[in-house]
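User: Okay, second chain of the day. Same drill as before: sequence in, structure tokens out.
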Amino acid sequence: MNLELEKKLWEAGKQEQAYRKEIWYEIIDSLLDDFHQFVGQDFHRDPEIQLNIENPNCPSFGRWIWTDEKGEFPLSVTWSALIGGDIIGTEESGDTFHVTILLFLFDTSGNNRLRLKTGESFLSFAFEKQSNYSGYWRSLGWCQDEWGEWENLG
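Assistant: Same drill. Structure tokens below.
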């Protein structure tokens, strides 16, 4: 990820004025470029980005990405995912900007969402800051939809 943009990401919410929309778009695109290298698969990016920057102390964003629907083979899968970012923590603990991707897998022959028998229904990834302030993507594995907010996604 571009070092200047990454610094802005980690400092989000700590500056007096909110970043301009264009800066956030650059940060989000840079994060997605990094994720592309991490997963090694091409994907599309929704042109619409949900961006909340009215409060400079609590910015947040969300954007959908997805693979092509190619059902050429019986074991083909596609996915769609939501990248989201917001502030976590408290001022005393040092607010930190947190970025995650929730990835949903689909069987392309029937467009059924893939889930584990144990209830986990999506893969989770986090962009984490290391001690040298350089971030990296890390897989958090399969997760359950604890509040049912993704049940109707299909």
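The CA atoms of residues 119 and 137 lie 24 Å apart.

User: Thanks, on to the next one.
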